[in-house]
Amino acid sequence: MTVKAGDRVPEGTLTEFIETETEGCTLGPNAFKVSDLTRGKKIALFAVPGAFTPTCSAKHLPGFVQKADALRQAGVDEIWCVSVNDAFVMGAWGREQGVAGKVRMLADGSADWTRAMGQELDLTARGMGVRSQRYSALIEDGVIKALNVEQAGKFEVSDVDTLLGQAA
């Protein structure tokens, strides 16, 4: 079942590679419940088919990094990049893209949460396995306020400017 605007985000766990140890977060991969992360917050989420892939690295992630301050001014508490990769890959991609403090790089390594969102994309024939559709979502206190799913091979509606307009 595909989620839609007005639905609650599904339960699930995402992992994040933590670079600096803090209270409650150890170095390396840390697991977080989506319901805990979204409670009381406004989240700008975008999902990509894969870390280090061409459109994701050249356009999608850089747009959110460049306009992170504008999203925060629009009331967004956190910006999430979700991909069906492991936390080590997401951490490395985030370092390479300079996201520190701007975008949380959240891994859905087995695509469990992506499937719960109804956003899985089978790229097995291309040697990539099950991945995520390219999409963006505005989430407020666990409720999806806007959902922008791309058509296959496109990058037209999940960009930062679309989500920024919806967050304002």
UniProtKB/TrEMBL annotation:
GO terms in the biological process aspect are: cell redox homeostasis; cellular response to oxidative stress; hydrogen peroxide catabolic process
Q: What's the EC number here?
A: 1.11.1.27
The highest taxon in the source lineage is Bacteria
Q: Which GO terms describe its cellular component?
A: cytoplasm
Sorted keywords for this record are:
Antioxidant, Oxidoreductase, Peroxidase, Redox-active center
| Catalytic reaction(s) noted | a hydroperoxide + 2 glutathione = an alcohol + glutathione disulfide + H2O
Tell me the ranges covered by the Thioredoxin domain, including all copies. 3-168
Pfam families (UniProt xref): Redoxin (PF08534)
Give the family, as the similarity comment puts it: Belongs to the peroxiredoxin family. Prx5 subfamily.
Q: What does this protein do?
A: Thiol-specific peroxidase that catalyzes the reduction of hydrogen peroxide and organic hydroperoxides to water and alcohols, respectively. Plays a role in cell protection against oxidative stress by detoxifying peroxides.
Q: What is this protein called?
A: Glutathione-dependent peroxiredoxin
